[in-house]
Amino acid sequence: MERTLNFDHWARRELDAVEAALDAWVPADTPAGLGEAMRYGVLDGGKRLRPLLVLAACQALGGAREAALRSAVAVELIHAYSLVHDDMPCMDNDVLRRGKPTVHVKYGEAQAMLAGDAMQALAFEVLTPDAGVEPALQARLVRLLARAAGHAGMAGGQAIDLANTGRLLDEATLREMHRKKTGALLLASVQMGAACGAPDETTWRALSEYGEAIGLAFQVVDDILDCTQGSDKLGKTAGKDLDANKPTYVSVLGMEAARRHAQELRVAAHAALARAGLADAAALAAIADKVVERDN
Fold first, then answer.
1. Among 141, 142, 239, 256, which is least packed by CB within 10 angstroms?
2. Which Pfam families match (predicted)?
3. CB of 265 within 8 A of CB of 216?
């Protein structure tokens, strides 16, 4: 691909591939309608940022396409399962996601819990096919995704979030919470794509720094949008964190400082890409800009 990237064209092509794979691999034929709830929770919605990061990183390194596509689907399944569970009454108690009723509202709490469980399991099944992905690469991808989703990543970050509702946090503690809750899976997306291309240590370290900057920038912008956009624009309940008295970058830093921090993180992401020494990081660079410039 040439350095002058038409990002929208590239993203549309890649998103079509991811959507087709999700449609093929998320089953409809399951006991008691479970597949219907799974498909409702993951198909036809969302920005698909994590799959795009996987595919952009793999492309930048000339990596294995089959492994990258499976990684893109797997990371989106983990993300979708986390949203299904986070929206439930025992967690964030939300009724709107991606512009439609949340899974527990449509299918009931028990079915939503099972749908999330099944999507989590399916993610690792997708990563471990009988053929097409080398066993050593399968193991590395599974480890990266499991670590990002578990106690040291997304689940741990959500636990910190729930434990600190109504409390004042300093910026360092807030950063650590979001590094786990949101950032870990975005970082893993970059790393999984990179792993498909067997990078050297310098490139791996630089891409990891890029992923960390993107992960934090995404959450900072999310906090800003929660205060500045309506539910119809966001596709989820606006002002939810404020109403729940949860700490955010806006509540801790203030709106203008939060905006500046998002720009600082964009600069850091581009600097990390420059250090990676990749022949073509145009898609990764464009994603960094899109994350900070988005309005939903």
1. 256
2. polyprenyl_synt (PF00348)
3. yes
| Domains present along the chain, CATH in parentheses | 7-293 (1.10.600.10)
* In contact, 243 and 273? CB cutoff 8 Å: no
Q: Which of 201, 210, 218 is nearest to 268 (CA)?
A: 210
Q: Are 185 and 161 in contact (CB under 8 A)?
A: no
Nearest to 148 by CA among 177, 97, 182, 194: 182
* Strand partners for 100: 97
pLDDT (tens, 9 = 90+) of the chain, 296 residues, equals 345 789 999 999 999 999 999 999 999 999 999 999 999 999 977 889 999 999 999 999 999 999 999 999 999 999 999 999 999 999 989 999 888 999 999 999 999 999 999 999 999 999 999 999 999 999 999 999 999 999 999 999 999 988 888 888 888 999 999 999 999 999 999 999 999 998 999 999 999 999 999 999 999 999 999 888 766 656 656 556 665 677 889 988 999 999 999 999 999 999 999 999 998 899 999 999 999 999 88
Extract the tokens encoding 33.
């309608």
